[in-house]
Amino acid sequence: MQLHIEAVTKQYATVTAVNQVSFQIDSGEIFALLGPNGAGKSSIIRMLVGMTKPDSGEIRIHWQDKTFNEVPRRLLGYLPEDRGLYGDKSIEKNLLFLAQLHGMSKADALQEMEHWLQVFELSERRHEDLKQLSKGNQQKVQLIAAVLHKPALVILDEPFSGLDPINQEKVVEFLKQLKQNGMTVLLSAHQMAMVEKLADRMVLMAKGEVVLAGSLADIRQQAKPEQQILLRSETPLPIEWLQALPEVSSLEQQAPGQALIRLKAEAQVAPVLRQLLERIEPEQIAMQTPDLHQLYLQAMAKHQSRVKLEVVA
Ligand SMILES: Nc1ncnc2c1ncn2[C@@H]1O[C@H](COP(=O)(O)OP(=O)(O)OP(=O)(O)O)[C@@H](O)[C@H]1O
């Protein structure tokens, strides 16, 4: 299963939800769509599953030796943005119904269901009506429903939403299992820490456009992130002096004796370290690599200031 999204544009009335977006998802990858609210993630997903069509550009899905313009239903496991199962039916009845709709036999569905109910610790509750479950547990049932029929491609619109940190970790493990089982996974998410653990590649979108794309390492390179120095001392740090150093762009004081110092893009690290060591006796001094959350915030801030400049010009 390979997906090609080529120069796809989607307009709703006055809003360009997706603007000339291109990327490719390879077989067996976990691929993440990232971006703030309204970036266009769900619009792309809705076009992939055939709920809407692009205004221009092309979607091509290659499966074995065939090509499609939307993912065929029998190959697709989909967690929609608007969740929808039957509240007055039990977990088991809901899952059996959906598995059989996808052409699974009852025996196969029950066997597959057993595995996933155990993964999400819901085995004991299989006969409870869905409406009796917490929002998080309903979400877990929805995730099982998306994969029970062993689809080739799983598309999950915000699989982590509404889940506590422990259950978010469970979803990470669930997604890793899907990859091990050979499925291709596309997900949208706001939880950068989870995406960082999982995604082989990703695109960062803003206002319908791709801002950054690639693996985490690629994104780190493209983003040209600020260099960061973590400084820890047993005595309080001379914060004003640190802020006034010409190489420093900003400083985050994390405790009286601890700060994260961000350097200007063109700054050399060695002279900064020399000055620090002349003035301070640090307990710890370390270069820090920004995580996906920080890269995301930096990329979005840069994108916003570029858009503002374009508007002024
Ligand atoms: N059916 C629609 N009619 C009109 N505008 C729409 C429609 N669907 C989406 N939009 C607009 O398109 C833009 C992109 O929305 P979309 O739902 O794709 O973003 P998203 O990245 O999935 O956001 P979120 O993280 O909030 O789910 C938004 O400005 C949204 O208001």
From TrEMBL:
<keyword id="KW-0547">Nucleotide-binding</keyword>
<dbReference type="InterPro" id="IPR027417">
    <property type="entry name" value="P-loop_NTPase"/>
</dbReference>
<feature type="domain" description="ABC transporter">
    <location>
        <begin position="3"/>
        <end position="232"/>
    </location>
</feature>
<dbReference type="InterPro" id="IPR051782">
    <property type="entry name" value="ABC_Transporter_VariousFunc"/>
</dbReference>
<keyword id="KW-0813">Transport</keyword>
<protein>
    <submittedName>
        <fullName>ATP-binding cassette domain-containing protein</fullName>
    </submittedName>
</protein>
<dbReference type="InterPro" id="IPR017871">
    <property type="entry name" value="ABC_transporter-like_CS"/>
</dbReference>
<dbReference type="InterPro" id="IPR003593">
    <property type="entry name" value="AAA+_ATPase"/>
</dbReference>
<dbReference type="GO" id="GO:0005524">
    <property type="term" value="F:ATP binding"/>
</dbReference>
<dbReference type="Pfam" id="PF00005">
    <property type="entry name" value="ABC_tran"/>
</dbReference>
<dbReference type="InterPro" id="IPR003439">
    <property type="entry name" value="ABC_transporter-like_ATP-bd"/>
</dbReference>
<keyword id="KW-0067">ATP-binding</keyword>
